[in-house]
Amino acid sequence: MFKALREKLRNFGRKVEEVAEETSPAQEPSPSAPPPTLRSEPAAAAPTTSSREPTKAERKRLLRSAPTLPPPSSPAQRQQATVPPPAPMPTAPPVVPRRATDPVVLPPPKVKKVARAVAPDTTSAAFTDSLLGLRIRPERLLEVLAELEMALLECDVALPVVEVFKADLMADLVGRKVRLRTDLESLVRESLKRSIHKVLHKGVDFDRFVANAPKPLVLMFVGINGTGKTTAIGRIAYRLQQQGYSVVMAAADTFRAGAIEQLDVHATRLGTKIIKHQEGSDPAAVAFDAVEHAKARKRDIVLVDTAGRMQTNTNLMMEMKKIKRVCKPHKIIFVGDALAGNDAVDQAVRFHEAVGVDWAILTKIDCDSKGGAALSIASAIDKPIILVGTGQQYADLELFDADWMVRRIFSEDTAVAS
To answer: 185: closest CA among 410, 336, 407, 418?
Structure first.
């Protein structure tokens, strides 16, 4: 096609030249022009242009004979016709020769970007993302959880706490894939162990806290009757004295008959100072006098005993709030019974709502208890358990060990913590 177009343009050019030669008259020499000489340069040839313009008929004949470009027939030809001309290539800068004194500049290293896949949150090697994995179904998981629920209830774990753990396990395991031939019961059991350990392990070191706390350190003890609250105060006083601290006891339980005498016996055996008033006096005044005595005599620790009261006694709960407002304790410790079962949850919640519990002590752990009360209390108020009572002597008060308690709940360790 382009060859034919070039041939037409060439023929058109020949026709234009022929028409120009026909219309231009012969050029005759002028009589006034000087004759050429031998030494003169040859005169430039004058351009052969027409002395007149072509007529209208001639212009029409020339236009009719001019070739026309055919319209683009294919999309490629249309795109080629609309493509702009290419931009000029950039020229490279001139190369300047390097001198010996110039510093050597190294190009920056090329960093290869590697796409990192986000690893799934797997808590055990049994989980997988492979297509061959088996997805955990809700109905199968409920069968396994039913057996674990009965085991926890037999360990004196409160029913509301068991329901919370079941809901957490359902939300964490349903829909996830496990490897082939994985024992689902063992997997759920290990997941429950980790959940219980997370609740029990709060990372509170009682001895370290006492060493770094400002002095005098005021500790207030609350709880119902019969949980071993006064005995726990005597054991803590013995533990602190063994570490070299001076202790003051405040007999702020002026409501129960014999409470002042009971604490007085512990103070006499341990050689500890005790601040006491008459029976029926204001317990807040007793706590205030004990704190002021510790400040005046440079004592280290003040242990405030309060009346053992049921969580349903509104008047005594208001009295306990007054003691807190007057003596301003650094920590309030709830003393719970390991044999209380489901009632331990209600006790801890009520005292926490009234005065705000910071820590918990679990007594009578040496009895036939599997540790369910510890899990119930820690889960109900979300506070750490710092100490457990393991016997009848003053030295039978141990730091709480979450690993030992988990093994005890799952009947893997029946020995008393040492």
So the answer is: 410
Segment 44-93, tens digit of pLDDT: 444 444 456 767 777 777 667 655 555 555 555 555 555 556 666 555 55
Output the pLDDT for position 26: 47
The whole-angstrom separation of Cα 313 and Cα 350 is: 11
Q: Is the pLDDT of residue 285 over 70?
A: yes
* Cα 86 from chain centroid (whole Å): 54
- Within 10 A of 394 (CB to CB), how many other CB atoms are there? 18
Longest Cα pair distance anywhere in the chain, in angstroms? 161
- Rounded CA gap, 146 and 163, in Å? 11
Q: Is 258 left (phi over 0), alpha (psi -120 to 50) or beta?
A: left
* Separation CA 194–CA 173 (nearest Å): 13
Residue 273 pLDDT > 90, yes or no? yes
pTM of the prediction? 0.64
Alpha-carbon separation of residue 1 from 63, 70, 74, 289, 406 (angstroms): 21, 9, 13, 117, 92
The two tokens of residue 223 are 């709880």
Residue 416's alpha-carbon distances to 363, 389, 412, in angstroms, are: 13, 10, 12
176: nearest Cα among 212, 122, 214: 122
Query: Which residues are CB-neighbours of 252 under 8 A, at least 6 positions away?
Result: 283, 284, 286, 287, 290, 304, 305, 306, 307, 323
Check residue 115 and give its pLDDT.
Answer: 34
Q: State both tokens at 331.
A: 């920590």
Separation CA 226–CA 326 (nearest Å): 26
Instruction: Tell me how far apart the alpha carbons of residues 218 and 213 are, in angstroms, rounded to a whole number.
Output: 10
Q: H-type helices in 271-388, by residue range? A: 283-297, 314-327, 343-355, 372-381
